[in-house]
Inverse folding.
């Protein structure tokens, strides 16, 4: 029986060692689970904070953009006010002659051109330029001896570019042989 007791004692020792190992492993697993749960909570918290920051940023930008669009035309209106003043003075002139009307119109035209330059609006479509179908609309063609083919002979309406975008094509008469 003593062999049997020894075996039982060894088995109990092995069993106790296995239980201790399992207990340590279980304890480590619990610590790992707690650590991962804590990391998950921190990540969720960080995510919520970032989402809130982004929502605030988006809301602020939408508000800024709305205000920008709301008052976009203000500078255009302010730019045209002096031009309107000149037209009013020209029309109010009691002894307007042909020359004074012409001078007044030239003054208005100059102010409009300068104002358009400040808005980065450039006219194009001059007599003698080569016709470019990307920016010119050929209203008609005619033959002009001594001039190269595809040159602009006359301009019905100037074209305009705003920065790099064509906002109105020039309407022109083009030389065709």
């Amino acid at each position: 029986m003593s062999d049997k007791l020894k075996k039982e004692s060894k088995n109990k020792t092995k069993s106790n060692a296995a239980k201790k190992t399992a207990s340590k492993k279980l304890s480590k697993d619990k610590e790992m689970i707690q650590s991962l749960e804590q990391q998950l909570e921190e990540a969720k918290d960080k995510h919520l904070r970032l989402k809130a920051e982004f929502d605030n940023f988006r809301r602020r930008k939408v508000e800024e953009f709305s205000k920008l669009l709301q008052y976009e035309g203000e500078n255009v209106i302010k730019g045209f006010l002096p031009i309107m003043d000149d037209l009013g003075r020209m029309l109010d002139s009691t002894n307007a002659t042909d020359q004074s009307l012409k001078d007044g119109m030239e003054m208005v035209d100059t102010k409009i051109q300068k104002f358009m330059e400040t808005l980065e609006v450039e006219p194009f479509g001059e007599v003698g330029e080569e016709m470019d179908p990307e920016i010119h609309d050929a209203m008609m063609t005619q033959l002009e001896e001594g001039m190269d083919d595809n040159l602009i002979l006359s301009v019905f309406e100037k074209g305009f570019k705003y920065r790099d975008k064509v906002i109105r094509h020039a309407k022109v008469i083009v030389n065709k042989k």
